[in-house]
From TrEMBL:
SUPFAM superfamilies recorded: NAD kinase/diacylglycerol kinase-like
GO molecular function: ATP binding; ATP-dependent diacylglycerol kinase activity
Residue ranges occupied by any DAGKc domain in the UniProt entry: 1-116
UniProt xrefs under Pfam families: DAGK_cat, YegS_C
InterPro entries (alphabetical): ATP-NAD_kinase_N, Diacylglycerol_kinase_cat_dom, Lipid_Phosphate_FormReg, NAD/diacylglycerol_kinase_sf, YegS/DAGK_C
Organism of origin: hydrothermal vent metagenome
Protein name, as recorded: DAGKc domain-containing protein
GO CC terms, sorted: plasma membrane
Keywords attached to this entry: ATP-binding, Kinase, Nucleotide-binding, Transferase
Zinc found in the keyword field: no
C-alpha cells in the first residue's frame, strides 16, 4: 500500500493508511473517514473488504475506490481493473493509476436482513440455498485455502456439498410469487458470479436500477454442477433455470 500511497500523494492527494484489525473493522474505518470529511476511501482487499467499506459509505458523498488485492476480486473483475498476480507491483500501480483517472459512478446497492432484523448492504449478489450454505461453513477460510485462491474455495465447497440440505421455498419478486424446491435463489446486481469465474447475467449493469433474480430448481446438489456447466457453455434457457428482473 505504501507504493499506492506514494503514487496518489505525487498526484496531490493527502493519504492516510489505516490497516484493518479484525472482521468488520473496515466498516468502522469507512464511517470514521466520512466523519473526518474524507473524499475517497481506497478499499485495498478482496470482495469481503469492499463489502465492509460499502456498508460504511452507503448513502454518503464519500467515494469508494476498489484496489484489488484479495482472493477472487469479483468486483474488480466486474470493473475490468488490472488484477495483481502475487501482489505484482506493476499491475497494482496500474490499477491505482486507473482509479486516479477514472470517473465517479453511482451504483445500485442491495440490502438484506436476517431473522432478527439486522441488515447489511451488498454490492454484487446475495444468495439463499447452496450459496449461503457454503459461505456459512467455509468462512473464515483457512490459510491453505486462501493461498490456493478460487481453487481452494472450490475444493472446500465440493467437500461440503454432500451435506447440503434441500428445502422448498417461496420467492416473491415485485408481487409475483414463485414456489418450488430451489437449490439456489440468487439476487444478482452484476454480470459475473462465483468469484468472477462465471458470467451469469451478460446484460446486467451495476447502475440500471434492476436486479436479476435467478431461481435454480432441484432437490439434489448434483443439479447445480449441471447448471454451472450449462452456463459456462452459454446456456441460460435450460429447464429448471428461471431468471426474473426485479427491484
Amino acid at each position: 500500500m505504501t507504493l499506492v500511497a506514494d503514487l496518489w500523494q505525487a498526484r496531490g492527494w493527502q493519504v492516510d493508511i489505516q490497516p484493518t484489525q479484525a472482521a468488520g473493522h473496515a466498516t468502522t474505518l469507512a464511517k470514521t473517514a466520512v466523519s473526518n470529511g474524507s473524499q475517497v476511501v481506497i478499499a485495498a482487499g478482496g470482495d469481503g473488504t469492499l463489502s465492509e467499506v460499502a456498508n460504511g459509505l452507503a448513502h454518503t458523498a464519500c467515494i469508494m475506490a476498489p484496489l484489488p488485492v484479495g482472493t477472487a476480486n469479483s468486483f474488480a473483475r466486474e470493473l475490468k481493473l488490472p488484477l495483481p498476480l502475487f501482489r505484482g507491483k506493476h499491475q497494482l500501480l496500474k490499477a491505482a493509476d486507473l482509479l486516479l483517472n477514472g470517473r465517479i459512478q453511482q451504483m445500485d446497492l442491495g440490502y438484506s436482513t436476517d431473522a432478527t432484523g439486522n441488515g447489511r448492504y451488498w454490492l454484487l449478489w446475495a444468495g439463499a440455498g447452496v450459496d449461503g450454505y457454503l459461505v456459512e461453513h467455509i468462512e473464515p477460510r483457512p490459510k491453505w485455502s486462501k493461498k490456493l485462491g478460487r481453487l481452494g474455495y472450490m475444493l472446500q465447497g465440493i467437500a461440503l456439498t454432500a451435506r447440503f440440505p434441500t428445502a422448498s421455498a417461496k420467492v416473491e419478486i415485485d408481487g409475483r410469487l414463485y414456489e418450488d424446491h430451489y437449490l439456489l435463489t440468487l439476487i444478482s446486481n452484476c454480470r459475473l458470479y462465483a468469484g468472477g469465474g462465471l458470467t451469469i447475467s451478460p446484460q446486467a449493469k451495476l447502475d440500471d436500477g434492476l436486479f436479476e433474480v435467478w431461481l435454480f430448481q432441484g432437490k439434489h446438489i448434483g443439479k447445480m454442477f449441471q447448471y454451472g456447466a450449462l452456463m459456462k457453455a452459454g446456456r441460460r434457457d435450460f429447464p429448471g433455470m428461471t431468471m426474473v428482473n426485479g427491484r
